[in-house]
Amino acid sequence: MSVPIPLRRDFDAPQLRGLARKSKDGAQARRLLALAAIYDGATRTEAAKIGGVGLQIVRDWVLRFNARGPDGLVDGKSPGHPPKLNDAQRQAIARMIESGPIPAVHGVVRWRLIDLAQWIFEEFRITIAKQTLSRELRSMGYRKLSARPRHHAQAAGAIENFKKGFPERLETVARAKGVDCDAIEIWFADEARIGQKNKITRRWAKRGTRPSAPRDQRTASTYIFGAVCPKQGKGAALILPACNSEAMNLHLAEIAKAIAPAAHAILLVDQAGWHLSSRLVVPANITIIALPPKCPELNPVENVWQFMRDNWLSNRVFQSYDDLVDHCCTAWNKLVDQPWRIMSIGLRQWAHGF
Questions:
Q1: Strands 264-269 and 184-195
Q2: Which end of the chain has less neighbouring CB within 10 Å, N or C?
Q3: Contact criterion met (CB below 8 Å) for 343 and 336
Q4: Under a CB-based contact definition with an 8 Å cutoff, are residues 220 and 320 in contact?
Q5: How many Å apart are CA 187 and CA 282, to the nearest integer?
């Protein structure tokens, strides 16, 4: 017959009963009371009855208590199944995600979970479910995000160089115009073509269904010449039938009216022909600065157009050209009535310092 394992000597029955009263874990309190009975001289069979378990379980409690004290009687979290991927494999997957697939090799232009699972099997001979792989990627900090568009012919470093040199250009304009840098308003301008044949946006719908939205096939269109000053939360726009120097002159005059009386404006535009035409009549309170070529992501008005289309101008049918113009006017007026919206969309750290 085996000899019972003795309990450690640095505890006694009153201590264990006191700990049981304070414990908020019912299982731990029951185990403490069972071991307290052993300290008082009860047999292991009697302790098993107190704990409502068998002798082998009481033996396990004694071993856990001797090794870790009262904390050893608290149930720990089950370790579960061992992870299918180790750290080296996770690092290899991260490198593959960052570099992207090679179409000629992997047969896809973007990674889907099923494609990554296939690559993992080919590389490591590990079969992993899409749900498990999704949890792994999320734990590594990855999410499925929309890619930001970048022009295919964009010069390397063009955006970084422009941002780095912008404060110096701001100071140069301030000195030339005899104003303080704080009195300069930074405006961004661009144009958007809005037509009867507009886009269909995503919408909430039940899984497994295909929601529908109205789609016009007619081709009447107009242009919103829009400009925003994100720091002040204000904007100026005209709805015009064409993009040319004459239309740009009208827009410049409209922007000039929105600039504060004692301020001077820097107007950042892309390098479209009508933005830099020699026929432009630039108001005295505006200085035009051209953005680098093929760098639309520097202009937050691109995000303004996306917001207006997604929320106010898509999924609808315009009955006529006049109806189209009316809706464009309504959408722009709704935007300028929400200065916080212009600030949220348009503020850029490189231009505004925050």
A1: parallel
A2: N
A3: no
A4: yes
A5: 14
Which residue stretches of the chain are H helix? 13-22, 26-39, 44-51, 55-68, 87-99, 103-106, 113-124, 130-139, 158-177, 245-258, 301-308, 321-336, 339-346, 349-352
- Burial-class residue 30 by CB neighbours within 10 Å (0-12, 13-18, 19+): middle
240 by DSSP, 3-state: which? strand
Q: Tell me, what's the pLDDT at 155?
A: 85
Report the alpha-carbon distance of residue 254 to residue 252 in Å, rounded.
Answer: 5
- Provide CB contacts within 8 A for 188, sequence distance 6+: 227, 228, 230, 267, 268, 269, 299, 300, 301, 346
Query: The tokens 């874990």 sit on which residue?
Result: 25
Measured in whole angstroms, the distance separating CA 130 from the mean position of its chain's CA atoms is 22
CA distances from 83 to 75, 128, 135, 281 (A): 22, 10, 11, 67
264-269/221-229 β-pairing: unpaired
pLDDT averaged per 10 residues in sequence order, the chain, 354 residues: 81 92 92 93 91 91 92 82 91 93 87 93 94 93 78 84 94 93 95 83 74 76 97 97 96 97 96 95 97 93 93 88 95 97 95 82
For residue 9, what is the DSSP state?
Answer: T
254: burial class by Cβ within 10 Å (0-12, 13-18, 19+)? middle
Cα–Cα nearest to 270, from 160, 174, 191: 191
Report the alpha-carbon distance of residue 328 to residue 176 in Å, rounded: 37
pTM over 0.70: no
Sheet hosting strand 234-240, strand order edge to edge = 234-240, 221-229, 184-195, 264-269, 286-290
